[in-house]
Write a structure and sequence with these properties.
This protein is an alpha/beta fold and 615 residues long. The chain is built from 20 helices and 27 strands. The strands form five sheets. Strands 3-2-4-1-10-9-11-15 form an eight-stranded antiparallel beta sheet, covered by helices on one side. Strands 5-6-7-8-12-13-14 form a seven-stranded antiparallel beta sheet. The structure holds 5-amino-5-deoxy-1-O-phosphono-D-mannitol. The site of 5-amino-5-deoxy-1-O-phosphono-D-mannitol has 16 residues, from α9 and α17. 5-amino-5-deoxy-1-O-phosphono-D-mannitol binds next to α9 and α17.
């Protein structure tokens, strides 16, 4: 979704902003723009398309100045075009603003402003906000600073926002604020950076402040960083050290971030477990939930809330927690849960799963459950993200930055953390035998190595991809804990290759989807050696009887499926509960290769955003 980058200091703002916007491209967008303050003028450039289109449109025009704001827009109010692109300027053209989020009461505000003589040039909610700021700044009974005017304007606004405002007449200052959309301040030597996440500033500073919801910041080159709440209370900035490394944000020789991230999984899974598991001592400990361990152990039920891939991880979590900790689990789409008036009790524990930690629906679900007294556990990848801060406790997945829009290493890291959590709670509850517990720890520790050998199947997965790259439809089937793997496989294929794909519990096929099967239809089946193996074999027979093409992910050494399937992909053997961590890898590779062969934009698929900060 929208990305913000702003700079004030002694360097050329344009260069820093453009580089930063390119780094935020992974968030998904359809237009871009910058406003640069130079010698009391404000140069504004906006263009539909990519940041590269903006740069070539600007060409040799004036890009001087050491203060500026930049934006990549993911259209909500009005189509992607030059006029709707940010920044938006006030009527008197003194102020410009970039915004991420949605101003829900914008049409009421717009009507009032039109009555007061304001004229608008775009369809956006954002333009309304900068006009409101101007109106308050100009027509207030007492003389207001821009900081005050922004603060008062925001108190009239309903919705979500991260904003940065620039003033043509003040090269010393930027004003920023956030509510439900992320914004990070970077503090350099005589300079400040602002961005939707820390990636645009990582090579300039390690000192960052994550603005809290309802905070407004003044970044002034003379007086420094001042933070207040929208209600006008002074806050002391909490400066944190950034752990992110620049290399993690680059492709490192891979053609795409997605491929790099798929290949990083042996390391990222290892990092998710680092310091949390020791099989030789029979130990699993997640420090971030220790203080709430009793609460989770005694929970009457667990409610997982998430969206997309993270929701699939939640489904895997359901099997893990019910099996190992014997706690009833409900897995909810955050977007449905938040609007359903759900029954939530103080004995409930809500586990929110999110790579970005900024997904608007998941965040809203947390707030709702919190109000009703539930305990909130966050499982996030991005350190300092909104969900991690809204949760009572939680565990980071430590997968490192995930830039490809299609989630890969974040999913396996989420499943790893859920496994550790289920083991920790199960042990404390006494619902898992010591023998099983110890065996699972040993198996879990060997997963990175097994992922490594699964990745070696890439060549044969690529050959299979070549055979099915022109399919119009695909089915993914799995049972038990591998049913979510089927859903995730189907999601990966559709989101990056635009092939229609559906995931089903294998036995459900005969209740409808079987009608789709003909000799053109590839059916990807997880048929590893587990309790449902024989049943899945029968499901494969049903597909073959209707001339469908079966590509099965099987346990190394399998014979039975090999005889009936068109192709098999043999993954290493492991405990049934850990199979998702391996079985998902061939599907990630398959989607990747098919998308490349179909010449799709792998890392930034059409219409999608990495971090969905609007509902
Ligand atoms: O950042 P989150 O994990 O909360 O994001 C949730 C979904 O938007 C995300 O998993 C999405 O489905 C992925 N692009 C799928 O690959």
């Amino acid at each position: 979704m929208c990305g913000i980058v702003a700079y004030i200091g002694h360097q050329k703002a344009f260069d820093i902003i453009i580089k930063g916007l390119k780094r935020l491209e992974y968030r998904g967008y359809d237009s871009a723009g910058v406003a640069l303050q130079n010698n009391s003028s404000l140069n504004l450039y906006k263009k539909k398309g990519k940041v590269a289109d903006l740069v070539s449109f600007i060409g040799k025009k004036d890009t001087n100045g050491s203060v500026g704001i930049g934006h990549t827009r993911w259209a909500t109010h009005g189509p992607p075009n030059d006029a709707n692109a940010h920044p938006h300027v006030s009527g008197h053209k003194k102020f410009a603003l970039v915004h991420n989020g949605i101003i829900e009461n914008y049409s009421v505000l717009k009507k009032e402003l039109i009555q007061r003589g304001h004229q608008f040039n775009s369809d956006t909610d954002t333009e309304v906000l900068i006009h409101l700021i101007e109106e308050i700044h100009t027509n207030s009974k007492r003389k207001l600073t821009l900081f005050e005017a922004v603060r008062i304007a925001l108190s009239e606004v309903i919705g979500a926002y991260a904003i940065v405002v620039i003033n043509k007449e003040n090269p010393n200052e930027l004003i920023a604020a956030r509510k439900s959309s992320p914004l990070v301040v970077g503090i350099g030597d005589g300079e400040f950076f602002l961005a939707s996440d820390a990636t645009p500033m990582v090579e300039f500073t390690k000192n960052v402040v994550y603005l809290e919801d309802g905070e407004i910041a003044q970044l002034n080159l003379d007086s420094g960083l001042k933070i207040k709440t929208i209600e006008n209370q002074e806050k002391t900035p909490y400066i944190q050290e950034l752990e992110m490394q620049l290399e993690a944000l680059e492709k490192g020789g891979y053609d795409h971030f997605m491929l790099k991230e798929i290949y990083e999984q042996p390391q990222s899974i290892h990092d998710s477990m680092r310091g949390r598991i020791r099989s030789s001592k029979g130990l699993v400990s997640l420090g971030g939930i220790k203080d709430y361990e009793e609460k989770i152990v005694n929970a009457k039920r667990l409610i997982f809330v998430a969206c997309g891939t993270s929701w699939h991880a939640g489904l895997v979590g359901e099997y893990l927690f019910e099996e190992l900790a014997r706690i009833p689990v409900e897995v909810e789409y955050a977007s449905e849960f938040r609007y359903r008036n759900p029954v939530i009790n103080e004995d409930d524990v809500l586990i929110a799963i999110s790579q970005s930690g900024e997904t608007a629906d998941t965040l809203a679900a947390i707030k709702l459950a919190k109000e009703k007294g539930a305990t909130i556990v966050g499982i996030c990848n991005v350190v300092g993200s909104s969900i991690s801060r809204e949760s009572h406790c939680g565990s980071y997945t430590h997968a490192g930055p995930e830039i490809g829009v299609a989630s890969t290493k974040a999913f396996t890291a989420q499943v790893t953390v859920l496994t550790l959590m289920a083991l920790m709670i199960g042990k404390k509850k006494g619902t898992i035998s010591t023998q099983r517990f110890n065996r699972l720890l040993v198996d879990l520790e060997s997963i990175p190595e097994k992922v490594e050998s699964t990745l070696k199947l890439d060549k044969s997965v690529k050959e299979i991809s070549n055979i099915y790259k022109d399919s119009s439809n695909a089915l993914y089937l799995g049972r038990g804990i591998n049913f979510p793997v089927a859903l995730e496989g189907a999601l990966k294929l559709k989101e990056i290759s635009y092939i229609h794909a559906e995931g089903y519990p294998a036995a459900e096929m005969k209740h409808g989807p079987i009608a789709l099967i003909d000799e053109e239809m590839p059916v990807f089946v997880i048929a590893t050696k587990d309790a449902s193996y024989e049943k899945v074999v029968s499901n494969i027979q049903e597909v073959k009887a209707r001339k469908g093409k079966v590509i099965a992910v099987v346990t190394k050494g399998d014979r039975e499926v090999k005889e009936i399937a068109d192709y098999v992909i043999e993954i290493p053997s492991t405990d049934d509960l850990l199979v998702p961590l391996l079985a998902t890898i061939p599907f990630q590779l398959l989607s990747y290769h098919i998308a490349v062969m179909r010449e799709c934009n792998v890392d930034q698929p059409r219409n999608l955003a990495k971090s969905v900060t609007v509902e």
